[in-house]
């Protein structure tokens, strides 16, 4: 016979999400980082396209 037992604890009941909270405007710093990242990604894709174009042998 066990010396002790464990009590089964049920998980907390899920509450339905209340009205969606309005999205906070992004900070100026995060906007600047996003712009820089977009430009860098654009530049990288352009370099990739030109490198891919240069690989094809001309016949």
Automatic annotation (TrEMBL):
Composition-biased stretches (Basic and acidic residues): 45-59
Region (Disordered): 1-26, 38-59
Protein's organism: Bradyrhizobium frederickii
Taxonomy, superkingdom: Bacteria
Biased composition (Low complexity): 11-20
UniProt name for this protein: Uncharacterized protein
